[in-house]
Amino acid sequence: MSDKKSKSIEDKAEREGNKIPVREIVEEFVPAGVAELDLYQKREKIYTRKIEGFYQRLRLYTGWPLLLGYFLVPWLNWDGRQAVLFDLPSRQFHIFSMTFWPQDFPMLAWLLIISAFSLFAVTAWAGRIWCGYTCPQTVWTAVFMWAEQLCEGSRNQRIKRDKEPWSAEKIWRKASKHGMWIGFAFLTGFSFVGYFSPVRDMAVNMASAIGIGTGSGLSFWEFAWINFFTWATYINAGWMREQVCMYMCPYARFQSVMFDHDTLIVSYDEKRGEARGPRKKAIEPASAGLGDCVDCQICVQVCPTGIDIRDGLQYECINCALCIDACNSVMDQMGYERGLISYTTENALNGKPTHFFRPRLIGYGIAVIIMVSLFLTALIVRVPLQLDVIRDRDRLYFEAANGLIENSYNLKVINMDQSSHDYSISVSGLEHATIVGNTQISVLSGEVAELPIRLSIDPADLTSTNTTIEFVVESDDVENFKATSESRFIGPRI
User: Fold this and answer.
1) Pick from 133, 127, 146, 144: which is nearest to 182 by CA?
2) Cβ contacts of residue 239 below 8 Å, gap of 6+?
3) In this structure, what is the dihedral angle of CA atoms 99, 100, 102, 107, given to the nearest 10 degrees?
4) Rounded distance between C-alpha atoms, residue 259 and residue 247, angstroms
5) Strand ranges (E), 261-384
6) Using an 8 Å Cβ cutoff, are 95 and 283 in contact?
7) Distances (CA, A) of 467 to 439, 457, 461, 470, 494
8) Count of CA atoms in the C-beta half-sphere (13 A) of 187
């Protein structure tokens, strides 16, 4: 803002009591000829160009295992049941040989914290390689782009076809593309719901819904969630694409906090590439006053977010390395050295040494190693058994006919193992106390059994009105398979 314009507005504000319409302020600074100022920029469709290279093969090696794992894991069986099943109605979460319950949710929070710190460490080391190689949005969008290229042709063919009037061929190609999109999106939604509902039963029920087989049909919630995730995938990967990365993903906004001058990012070597411009292959760039960049725009054409990496580091960049493979292919054709666009650091671009071992990265690494070690230890020593003790609060204590003091308790034994077990009940912390009632209980896999008992003691053996005790439930058939729970024994005043 110029001093002259600023003074003009200040004088006008003083004359009119600081009440100047916003329109007049905008007109003061909007360039002549601009009819209106639109603060929202409409999305321009990005036509990506197909490119091959080392990093794109690497993306295939990381993307396909994730896709195959996502679609195939629900179909795996383990000991007669689905290997991975998050059974919400039963509140049981089966992951191969282990079964987790809502009581194990702290472990889930722990796992999420480990994932967050791992993401921070990877980002500090190599930027957004998670986004470029393994993020579901990137992987699914790449599949949708492949279907688009298969049905509608190359980048130039798609641009030309979109400008042409509608014809039978155009309708057929568009319809086949969207058919592939919806089909893949349906498989995505069906597979996702298959992690929460038995996938084999769901497949049989879906077949019966369309007149094949004798299943009972999909439930309302199965149908609703499959439908939701199908259309969510279709919209996100087919239509929104880079909009998700640029505007919906919070990672794009806070990633820069974890970057430093030694972070490995996709960068353009401005010193080597400038001044850019076209030239014949036989011409030596230096003799023509040019750098190695031929300004072919291919790096822009292959970018899934539509940015120009030559403008410097931008939050829209997902480190997919498409521009690196594109630029390297041009450098090969021109006979120039590769690496005009490459994975490098800001220090390396400025001729300074890159420091791999630095405090931030070391700190992240140590934190991740410690948390993973503790998590694995907790997972290994975890006993799938829990004991809850509820003391009878209707009366503090009562005196039996034989003069003994008794307290009543209700024990809940939760067998979180995948096998049934027989358990024995014992108590400690109150010498000479005896259990009145059954001390043996059999609990089926995944069941909660209740056992009412009374604890009895001679008042002469009581040393305190309020004594801390501990109930122990221990398996009769598995060694070191036990759980404890603390409670209180209340007696008369001593």
Assistant:
1) 144
2) none
3) 180
4) 20
5) 265-268, 341-344
6) no
7) 21, 12, 12, 10, 12
8) 12
Distance of CA 402 to the CA centre of its chain: 63
Look-up of token digits 């096998």? 419
The vertex-324 CA angle with 323 and 327, nearest 5°, equals 80
Encode the chain (494 residues) as per-residue pLDDT tens digits. Answer: 444 444 454 454 444 444 445 445 445 555 555 545 455 567 788 999 999 999 999 999 988 999 999 999 999 998 888 999 999 888 889 998 888 888 888 888 899 999 999 999 999 999 889 999 999 999 999 999 999 999 999 999 999 999 999 999 999 999 999 999 999 999 999 999 999 999 999 998 888 777 676 667 788 899 999 999 999 999 999 999 999 988 888 888 888 788 889 999 999 999 999 999 999 988 899 888 999 999 999 999 999 999 999 998 888 899 999 999 999 999 999 999 999 999 999 999 988 998 888 898 999 999 999 999 999 999 888 888 899 999 988 888 888 888 899 999 999 999 888 888 999 999 999 888 999 888 899 998 888 899 999 999 998 888 888 999 999 999 988 888 899 999 999 988 87
163 beta partners: none
- Residue 190, token pair as written in the block: 């069906």
Phi and psi dihedrals of 401, rounded to 5?
-65, -30
280 three-class SS = coil
Question: What is d(CA 70, CA 59) in angstroms, rounded to the nearest whole number?
Answer: 16
Partner residues linked to 421 by β-bridges: 443
Q: What is the C-alpha to C-alpha distance for residues 413 and 388, in angstroms, rounded to an integer?
A: 7
CA distance 107 to 394: 36
Of 452, 453, 445, nearest to 422 by C-alpha is: 445
The residues that bridge with 158 in the sheet, in sequence order, are none
Strand partners, 451: 411
- How far, in Å, CA of 325 to CA of 331, rounded? 10
Give the predicted TM-score (pTM) of the model: 0.80
The widest CA-to-CA distance across the chain, in whole angstroms, is 112
State the residue for tokens 């906004």.
253
Do 82 and 76 form a contact (C-beta atoms < 8 A)?
yes
Beta bridge partners of 443: 421
The CA distances from residue 17 to 10, 13, 21, 29, 387, in Å, are 10, 6, 12, 21, 74
Selection from 473, 463, 474 nearest residue 489 by Cα: 463
Please count the residues of the chain: 494
